[in-house]
Specification:
mainly alpha; 2 domains; 17 helices
Amino acid sequence: MQITHQRILNIAIPIVLANVTVPLLSLVDTGVVGQIDSPIPIAAVGMGGLILNTTYWFFGFLRMGTTGLASQALGAQNSAEVNAILTRVLLLGGAAGLLIIALQVPLFWLAFLLSPATEAVETQARLYMQIRVLSAPAAIAIYGLNGWLIAQERTRSVLLLQIWMNGLNILLDLWFVIGQGWGVQGVAWASFLSEISALVLGLLICRNTLLGRDWRNWSRVFDRDMLLRMVNVNRDILLRTLILQCISVSFLFVAADFGVVELAATHLLGQFLIVTVFALDGFAFAAETLVGQAIGARSRSGFRRSALMASYWAVGIALLLTLAIALFGNWMIELLSKSEEVRQTAVKYLPFLLLIPIFGVGSWMLDGIFIGATQTRDMRNMMAISLLTYGIALIFLVPIFGLFGLWTALLISLIARGVTLGFCYPGLEKRLLAKR
């Protein structure tokens, strides 16, 4: 298989552009309800969106697992299996969404128990969630659909889906909330309609497959071995992601112990981290796709070239991000916060953001390589080691160095992820060779 820089960029750039639409939508959601002369709608949409997005996020494994499995089937030139995977993920996503709808009452009760709010905010948040949750089958199925498209290097279609879904959501936000005065319910209906319409558009994008017969070859779709493999891959990714979330959530909880100013500064700097992840995601996705295809084709040279070339680009982007933060970090902090205390605190810890792209790029790219290879057990286990390393660093560093110790612990966890997966990489190549 031929791996070129242009091919990598064709996969990566649309993903980076698609990621840009995500924070933009969140900004508009907040902005439209912010026009209402009360803080309650902003709090309700923020809390309701956080609860539903976190719930949906648990099924994010569908995107990653589907990319690895479908890219390998494509590399093996097994088009029947590629098409059957589409049916499996759509059915699984739809079933997961229906389960969330059925269990919404206990789920919402538990969410508010863990994160209590005032009665007025909780009432408005429930109104928001009761509407938006109706599109859960579409929202979760889109995860799998995106993974399936990425596996085939159709990332422009993924970009189109994201622009359509988030762009329509923004327009409906403006119409329903500002034009019609529907308030929080308007934001919810905007999300509902945009997610449903995005799934319809996604199915239209896949119409050539859906006009064939393979997608409804039920004996293949429900093949026991293929289903078991899909379950194992997705189970490991889910566990790995839950472990990662333990690091992210505990990081914010520990930061909160230092006070409101420190928590605000940490949240502000977290926006830089999100930009870093979004910028590098595209190249991790390229590694997933091309590595998976190389393994399906039993091409050791294609495997190694895919991993290296995608990583070269990621390292280059990481260095550019570090330079951009060094040059414009102070200016961005001043733009994002009017509080002088928050600004001064954020500037004090800004050097960590210079180090994270450099020391974190290895972990993110190796994640992509191992997802493409569907070696998700290694990912799960190495993430567990990373969590253990992070916990030990917290215990020893935070009492002595305070918030500096917390940021150092996060940096150490990223290094641990990269190093441990790096040790697993030679074994990955050996397993590939053994299958030739």
